[in-house]
Amino acid sequence: MLKKTITIGLSSGLEARPVAMLVQIASQYESVIYVESQNARVNAKSIMGMMTLGMGSGEEITVSVEGADELAAMEGIENYLVGAN
Q1: Distance between CA atoms of 57 and 39, rounded to whole angstroms?
Q2: Cα 43 from Cα 55, distance rounded (Å)
């Protein structure tokens, strides 16, 4: 299991379109992926769950990944969230 704190670098934060894209990225991997913000922990493959977080640019989230492709999953999600894509 991997766990990492990531600062959101997307200029619009995690609004509707960026959340939809994050869910698409997370869904490409077999691993179980969770995103935590303050006291909320949601499945990164759930659009409704992710929308409840309402995170802005510069805020920190914790991503936890567990599964056969966890390294690739963490890298893909982190690259997207920091705005590397």
Answers
A1: 18
A2: 15
